[in-house]
Write a structure and sequence with these properties.
By secondary structure, this protein is α+β, with helices and mostly antiparallel strands. The protein has 3 helices and 7 strands; from the N terminus they run E-H-H-E-E-E-E-E-E-H. The protein has 2 domains: about 80 residues, no CATH class; about 80 residues, no CATH class. A hairpin with a 4-residue loop joins strand 2 and strand 3.
Length: about 160
């Protein structure tokens, strides 16, 4: 069984919104002239590039990949070793955007992430993101049992 989940938009909320607007404008202009394709490509790159994770429970492997323009996957599979661990950590990202009048707009995103650690306790990457701790804890237990990993308390990870 495989499970795929989206983690983040690569360019944040402002970049994603701008990219979608540029993409739509390029599609509309392309309807009248082929020069609109100049806007479609960068707009699709900005607006639709995202990061994803696929977990293959049967073969015990994980794939962290970026979907370029929303259609081209770039990443490779990584097998899960016995020394790896799972943990939960609160993740806070702050996206800062400046306007032409030099005003800044800050967008704060807070979520809980299920992380994969190597044998030394360093974060490899996030496997899934959640809005609440309870669902993250239940997935931590089920993923630990399914993948055969230690899913206890890790010194660097905070619940």
């Amino acid at each position: 069984m495989k499970a795929t989940g989206k983690l983040d938009n690569s360019f944040g909320p402002a970049g994603t919104t701008s990219g979608i607007i540029i993409f739509v404008a390029g599609v509309i202009i392309t309807w009248f002239s082929l020069t609109g394709l100049i806007l479609v490509l960068p707009g699709s790159f900005l607006g639709f590039t995202s990061t994803f994770v696929t977990i293959d429970f049967d073969n015990k492997r994980v794939k962290f990949f970026t979907l370029l323009c929303g259609i081209i996957p770039v990443g490779k599979w990584m097998s899960i070793d016995a020394g790896m661990k799972l943990g939960i950590r609160k993740n806070t990202r702050l996206w800062k955007t400046y306007s032409r009048s030099n005003r800044s707009l800050e967008t704060k995103e807070c979520d809980i992430r299920l992380l994969l650690f190597d044998k030394d306790g360093k974060v490899i990457f996030a496997l899934k993101k959640y809005k609440d701790v309870d669902s993250a804890k239940s997935d931590l237990v089920s993923f630990s049992q399914t993948l055969g990993l230690y899913g206890g308390k890790i010194p660097e990870a905070s619940e």
